[in-house]
Design goal:
35% of the residues lie in helices and 27% in strands. By secondary structure, the protein is α+β, with helices and mostly antiparallel strands. The strands form 2 sheets. Strands 1-2-3-4-7 form a 5-stranded antiparallel β-sheet. A 3-stranded antiparallel β-sheet has the order 6-5-8, with helices on one face. A hairpin with a 2-residue loop joins β1 and β2 (11-19). The longest helix has 18 residues, at 23-40. The protein is globular and about 45 Å long. The chain starts with a strand and ends with a helix.
Amino acid sequence: LVDHLEVEPGRHAMVLADVAGKALPAALLMAKVQATLRALATEAASLTDLASRVNAILCRDGLPNRFVTLVYLDVHADSGRITLVNAGHMPPIVVTPAGFHDLPRGNMAMGLLVRASFEEQQVEFQPGDMLVVYSDGLTDAMNAHGEFYGDERLRALMPGLSALAAADAGARLLSSVNTF
């Protein structure tokens, strides 16, 4: 799931989520995740509250052995501040002109334990900084020889992304995976 919602003028929510499983059950769960996030996003007191409420609903209504990993970003357009919650997803990567680093690992995936806790992270960006949020579909891409694209290839691209616009950085990532 990739989604965007203008929560209020100048404040945007962006989500990247991945569901365990395939086919119709996974698609139905993802639709539930999207609808639940959209329904609660404007009322939640914090991202911690939002994640806890979505998790409780998924635990109550979800399917056995199904869970969701996600990164939910709260982007304030008039500042360099992003607040996020990471529920079991790969840590986003901050790319700056000086280098790159992972954000701290997130909490557990949603839909597993009703009393799971979720913590917000805040990141301050300077002009030219970039946040790379990706799913394991990128690093788990496999070539004809059965090799995974992997974290090392992804990390090798990071220094070259810092001077690019977001669309160009995304295109370079996809091109690298497709070439691989």
